[in-house]
Amino acid sequence: MSEILESNAVAASSSEASTHSDSEVLVRVENLGKVFCRDFKKSLLYGLQDSMGDLFSAKSDKKQRAQDSEHKLRPGEFWANKDINFELRRGECLGLIGQNGAGKTTLLKMLNGLIKPDVGKIEMRGRVGALIALGAGFNPLLSGRENIYVNGSVLGLTKIEIDEKFDDIVEFAEVRKSIDSPVQTYSSGMQVRLGFAIASSMKPDVLILDEILAVGDMEFQAKCMIEISKNLASCAVVFVSHQEHLVQRICDRVLWLEAGKIVESGPTFSVLPKYIDAPRNRISSEQKETNLEKLDCINIVELVSCTLEVESGDNLKLEILINASSRVAIETFYIAFRDNTGKFVARSTISCEVIIEADTNTNLKFQVKDLRLKRGSYMVDTYAYSNGEKSLVFQFNSAAKFLMRSMIASQVDYQPDAVISV
Ligand SMILES: Nc1ncnc2c1ncn2[C@@H]1O[C@H](COP(=O)(O)OP(=O)(O)OP(=O)(O)O)[C@@H](O)[C@H]1O
């Protein structure tokens, strides 16, 4: 669940921060780098060597190596983040995008002060609210009520200030009935709801949100998106998500990470489409280890058919052929619709249990019901996830194109119902 901590990085007090102008820089990151070691035994040994180095010399071995160059890394070590630079101002929302293992959470953890950078500098101004890992930040034995007070105090709020916010937090998190039960009895969705409610209600200057919001249901996600937009008036947000439609919706800028390094940063409308369309072979061999199964199990994803023209309220039919080298279970499909400028305008979510047998052609037949989009041509992207949406089984961008003939106005966050049959 949430981790709500003051940043260990260079932090100014929130009162100091609030005296700055609206466009003030709240986060400044310069040449940031973090080295990890994949081999557990070696990492213990290196840790010991570095501590000894810190004790007996001004600069530890690890820092010296980190500041030299990549080939000086010790066996087993790699850069989880390298050469990261950015600034974030009040009122801005920065999206961190990248495949599994790209280094997004590592960067968030450094911003939140949970781990220390090996090189570079982080400057944070004001109060930091964060929702990073499920189960962290709460004492599982304490009740929801007690955890609200503990987290509020950690953020520097007085009891009276927390009292004032208490009802809003409980109402937003929808945990009124369980507020006096230990947090360890909460479902993961309840923990995330409470964590988010605390982090956002404490009026942070910087709000750090990891993919964890994905644990909540769609309704709660939509509520969070509205809350984040409200918060943005007074704070800066760093938002990690694999759900591109959410990034598209709330982030002004994105930082695209691969193998710990920035591939590109800039306005969401310019960087996100490039990320979505990028071939997925740009990851390092380091990360291929983690992604091999999900990337390599698909032999073919092909369009079989798609309705070419749709009147408002019609069903859209889409059929895709898929062939995998190993058996794979798909739990969630997303069907996303992009207009002719590439902007995401709607998406359907299908929760299911579809088994793709190895080396067998499987036809996936989707039906998006009662589709209502404004007149124009649209691209359809399909995404398939397994393992609680942790693994991307396949991503089929620009799978099909169709024409919408109606003249109706567009809707915000439109999510038409859809079904799948095999
Ligand atoms: N404490 C650690 N020790 C060693 N390696 C680590 C540690 N924490 C993370 N890593 C590795 O660092 C790399 C970056 O991990 P990180 O969690 O930052 O990626 P991510 O982009 O957040 O991935 P995901 O999208 O799957 O959450 C991965 O290869 C991961 O296995």
Automatic annotation (TrEMBL):
Keywords: ATP-binding, Nucleotide-binding, Transport. This is ABC transporter ATP-binding protein. SUPFAM superfamilies: P-loop containing nucleoside triphosphate hydrolases. Pfam families: ABC_tran (PF00005). Belongs to the ABC transporter superfamily. SMART domains: AAA (SM00382). GO terms for molecular function: ATP binding. Residues 64-284 form the ABC transporter domain. It comes from the Bacteria. Signal peptide: none annotated. InterPro entries: AAA+_ATPase, ABC_transporter-like_ATP-bd, ABC_transporter-like_CS, ABC_transpr_TagH-like, Bact_Polysacc_Export_ATP-bd, P-loop_NTPase.
